[in-house]
Amino acid sequence: FVCERMASRAILCLLFACLSAVVLAEDPYLFFTWNVSYGTISPLGVPQQVILVNNQFPGPNINSTTNNNIHVNVFNNLDEPFLFSWNGVQHRKNSWQDGMLGTNCPIPPGKNFTYRFQVKDQIGSYFYFPSTGMHKAVGGFGGLRVNSRLLIPVPFADPEDDYTVLIGDWYTKSHAALRKKLDSGHAIGRPAGVLLNGKTGKTGGKDDKPLFTMKQGKTYRYRICNVGLKTSLNFRIQGHTMKLVEMDGSHTVQNVYDSLDVHLGQCFSVLVTADQAPKDYYMVASTRFTKYLLSATGGIHYIATDGSKVGPASPVLPPAPTGVAWSLNQFRSFRWNLTASAARPNPQGSYHYGTINITRTIKLVNSAGTVDGKLRYAINGVSHVNPETPLKLAEYFGVSDKVFKYNTIKDDPTPTEKIVVQPNVLNTTFRDFIEVIFENPEKSIQSWHLDGYSFFPVAIEGGKWSPEKRKNYNLLDAVSRHSIHVYPGSWVAILLTFDNAGMWNVRANSWDRYYLGQQLYFSVISPARSLRDEYNIPDYLESLRCCQGIAHASSLHNLICFFLMYLYIYMKGCVLWL
């Protein structure tokens, strides 16, 4: 009897241990090693220097699944400091991995750094890009997809294949030449062309090889992202319609479109069925809201069901739409799929954002002007400049007052033509539900991105915003997303809960405007100062590299860096001693 009881307990203990192992098992890890280097290619027929990732242009795709832990060991073989940022990845509780100059020190030439982040509770289509200088102008970008877990239903059947399409405007000047032009106070001018997966289409009188293949009768998923510098693009596929199923990480109501306006920083997922006559077809990406027309094409090759040879694509390309009204109506047709699950089993529509009380309204007005005779861009009259010590690092160690000032702009700004150049950081209260108004008084379209979050764009209208405009908000099924555009002379209202502690960049997706100051940071601090809300500084000293030997650093900066280094080493020593 005693032996039986002992055996039973042993079996129970073994079962408990197995169950515990299942419960406590970590989410899967994905490991990548990337070598970043220069190379020479001719995307527009002219040889030019580009940035390669593992000798690829565009860079390699990251194919991940919800909650995967991603480690990317980046070796910087350039002659300048370098950073990657992960457009749309929220880095829950972990702005240390965001890859912006307000949170990270850049990777020095000849050194490496490993990004460690989790795509926590996310699905969808994203991309990565270089966030330092004007590196983005010459490559270094690539696709990043987050697939749904097998146990979470997806609101469409599995496609035959899944393709990434990176579109963007392109310059033939080097990143150094573009940076020099901006530093001298001048605009970089119009782009030289448009690229589609690194190609322009018809070059030298000969078509490029088809980028993708479709079997007749099968359905395919295309993930389309605008990775360009300053231009909205329209995307369409010759002879085919596109069923929109996801944008910026949210499942959408599945409307069908002939073409889609894809603004800077935005990603769309569409389903395309090969239901046309068996021949080749063109994808087309062309400029929108510009006085010039630039375009790129990419081939799609059909495979006929009977194996017969297919004909060439027609040289007659589908025309692009014109005007703002068409684009605005398309935006208003986008709807959140309230019954679909996203990263979790509960439907997206179970989050009723329209019933939450707004606790704060922040209006952000973009502007252009000159400071000391040089072009600058600003938000509420402040043109951001990154201090030598990253904002997040200074804040973490309690010396932010030595590096920057909080709240130098007002929530409701008064019109001003004066621009002040300084760090632009706004304090926000952890878990507050906030309304942000982006107001664009200029004649060019604007596109905005917020790191660390997704938000609900509830209205876009012409003119100036006022509280009475709230009666026009979509408080039911606005699509949760991370980037939004603002038409000329218009405004957009977004709603979100600031529940992700950290230092998060708000920026113009137009990279020349970003580089010359049209950005700021939201500082979101948990009052509990708990690991439940935000991770500590990483356990490796790479995060402090820019505090070591920066050329021409000021005495105050060096003093802060030495203090942070000493404090960090002291704290680590205490932990090891304990």
Automatic annotation (TrEMBL):
Every copy of the Plastocyanin-like domain together lies at 36-149, 161-291, 389-527
Extent of the signal sequence: 1-25
Pfam families reported in the protein's UniProt record: Cu-oxidase (PF00394), Cu-oxidase_2 (PF07731), Cu-oxidase_3 (PF07732)
The UniProt entry, under InterPro entries, shows:
Cu-oxidase-like_N (IPR011707), Cu-oxidase_2nd (IPR001117), Cu-oxidase_C (IPR011706), Cu-oxidase_fam (IPR045087), Cupredoxin (IPR008972), CuRO_1_AAO-like (IPR034273), CuRO_2_AO-like (IPR034271)
The UniProt entry, under Gene3D superfamilies, shows: Cupredoxins - blue copper proteins
Keyword set, alphabetical order: Signal
CDD domains according to UniProt: CuRO_1_AAO_like_1, CuRO_2_AAO_like_1
Q: Which organism is it from?
A: Coptis chinensis
Q: Name one GO molecular function term.
A: oxidoreductase activity
User: Mind telling me what this protein is named?
Assistant: L-ascorbate oxidase
